[in-house]
Structure formats: C-alpha cells, structure tokens
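Schema walk-through. Below, the input block comes first and the output block second. Nothing else is stored per chain. Lengths vary across the set, and this one has 291 residues.
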Amino acid sequence: MALVVQKWGGSTLSTIEQVKEVAAKILARQRSGDQVVPVLSAMKGETDRLIESLLEITDLPDLREYDSMISTGEQVSTALLAIAINALGGKARSLLSFQVPIRTNCAFKDARIEDIGAKAIKKLLRENCIPVVAGFQGIDYDFNITTLGRGGTDTTAVAIAAAIGANVCEIYKDVDGISTTDPGIEPRARHLDKISYEEVLELASMGAKVLQIRSVEMAMKHGVSIHVLPDKGTGRGTYVVKGDKEMEKVIVSAVALDRNECKITVTNVPDQPGVAAALFRPLAEASISVT
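--- output ---
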C-alpha cells in the first residue's frame, strides 16, 4: 500500500464530466489499496475569470482582498470533487487551507509555505476517507487567506507530500510528462523518462512551463519524488528525482525558450557601500525575484 499525493490542475478539471472522471480514477486507486490525497487547482479558466471581474472595479486592488477572492476557485473544485467521489460510493471530504492548516507568511499574491499540519489529513486517511485538499491557497498567522502565486498548487502538493511522508507526489497534466523541449514548437522533441531536480529547476527558470520552481525546490529540499503524468491515456510520465551517475553523463537534457523575460541594465551606479542594498531592497520588499 502506497501513500500518494495527486495534484490535479485546471486543465484536468475543465468540465463537470472531467471532475467525475477524476473522481472515478481517484476512487479506483484507493480501492486498489493505496491511500490517496488529491490536491486541486481551480477549474480551467476560473482564476482568470475572477481576476477579470476584480479588474473591472480597479487596477490596484487591496492585495488581502485580491487573495480572498481568487482563492475561491479552489474551494469550488475541491467541494465538487468530494461530492463526485461520494456520489460514486466512496467517502471524501474537502479541506481548505485553514482546515489543514497550511500556514504561510503574509506576502499576499506570492506567499510562501512555512508549516503544514498533517493531523487532519492523517485522521481522514485512517477513517478510509479521501482528503481533497485545496491547492494554491494558505492562511497566515493572522488568519488571512493568502495565495502562492500562479502554479502554486504544484507547491501545495509537494509540501503536503513532505508533511505526511508520502511515497510519491503525482502531478497530472495534459501532456505526457516532460520532453527535451516544447513539443508544440519542435515536433522532434523526445520524451524524458527521468530528470533531476536541478535540471527541472534550470528549465523552469528559463521559461519552461513544466512545474512551478518553488515546488521543485521544496521537493529537492525534502526528498519528495515527483511523477509528472498525463491526465488521459497510459503515458509513462516523467520522474523528477535526485540526480545519479547515469544522469550526470548527459551534457544537455533539454532546451527551453522564454519570450517574456526582461533584462534591465542599471548604469552609472556609484561603487560604494549601501548602493546595492538601496537598489534591491524595494524589490525584495515587493517579493520581486531578481536573477
């Protein structure tokens, strides 16, 4: 019997029919003997719709209220999946961030996970009940709702896998794992059965939309094995693991392209103590990453 965390993204939850299909897959996995903890994104397009509604009121919303609003998509998807599992004869319960709890700092829109409680999830598992966890959202120590940035459900799933000691964190996407480059750009791209944490981090930092960078950093820190799998079909998927000698022989594993990266050059900067701090402190305070 394996303890498995499964992340299901918005593209796998586009319609109610897809929600039912995912529920059937999860229930079949549980009935095969494994313990399953699904972690869900909002349904496809829902977060964008919420943001568009908000921007019709103001271009500069209060960030606390922004997070409170855009986190509601995950509340809907987790409740729907739990209802679907129950309707199929299983037993499931949805858990929002405050019910786990998933504790974060107070950096709204881009919060970082500081602690995850495992008791609520483990209690449901002992009762043969599937805990359906809302991804992307957390709660700070003042009980404000926070969000983890776009793609943050990947990070939620890996963090929960680390917290409960899962055997693997399966991340379901609408692609057959990870390839040597984007198959949409280069049809000759080859599928990768295995790739190291460090290689995925480099690909993600260069614009490859494989996994959220922070999720891979967390997996590497806590030794969580990630298996990127297709949500449909019987594809092999790709394991993201610690590098080994065989992997180190490969000079180039994959190629990424980022059309949205911006380079800013600051000139005539005085060479004196304190200048660099003055430049970068405001960026750090705004949670803007500089590479």
